[in-house]
Amino acid sequence: MKQFGLHRISGRLSASCWPPPFSSKGANVDMTIAEGFSIGKDVIIVIAAVAAAGVGIRGLNTWRRQLTANSDIELAKKILMCLYELKALIEVLRQPYKSYPLVPDLPPEKLEELSQEQAAWHIERQVYQRLWSPIPTVFARLNPGLWEGEALWVDGFGKGISAKVRQIEKLVMKVRYSVEEHLHQRDPDLKQFEKFTDEKRWNDLRKTLFSTGKDDELQSSFDEILSGIEAELHTVVRKHRA
Running DSSP on this structure, what letter comes out for residue 215? Predict the structure, then answer.
């Protein structure tokens, strides 16, 4: 009976404790699974962030390379266009045959004081002034491009381009000197003893001032220097377009 009562008590005890509580072992398993999902979620977020950062960095580097390429190509084109313009202006200035107005651009009272020779000299002077006036403007646009090239193009490449352009500038200034000397010698008010008497000096002046066709030394020098600059700047363009 006692045994039966004990069973009943045990049964009552068992019934009162139903359903049994989770064991500590089961709780640990469930928490481990939950933590695993949370950690996995964080890892995925981190991986996605790293991947996005990698894509962004690659995109930024590509953009920088494209920007550098575009800047180099535009700078090379700017320098070449100025040199081509300069070449065309010098060729026009050195043409032996030019169009001249009938009278110089002077006030009427000044025109009345001039002799025919003086009026012709003023006409020629003004024509050369008009032909020369765009040339300094071209150099004003060209020089900043050369300075930029010296700063951006390493290993002396930019400075090498500038050095070649300075050779062209020397030829241009030689033409400028020949124009001034030509006008000075043709000035009707110039004293006779100040004029050239050496025929060789006159010939050298004319070779610089006027284009002589196939045997034009100044034009050949200009073209040779320009070809060297073209070859070097074309390497810049080809490098970025390859």
Answer: G
- pTM for the model stands at 0.70
pLDDT in tens, 144-178: 999 999 988 877 788 999 999 999 999 999 999 99
Domain count across the chain: 2
158 and 119 assigned to the same domain: yes
**Residue whose tokens read 């709780």:** 27
Quick check: helix, strand or coil at residue 210? Answer: coil
In this structure, the number of other CB atoms found within 10 A of the CB of residue 209 comes to 19
pLDDT tens digit string along 44-88? 655 655 555 454 445 444 434 454 567 888 898 899 999 999 999
In which domain, by residue range, is 27 found? 2-51
Candidates 134, 131, 138; CA nearest to 94 is 131
* Residue 221 near residue 149 (C-beta atoms within 8 A): no
Residues 86 and 46 in one domain: no
Residue type, 49: A
For residue 5, give both structure tokens.
């009562």
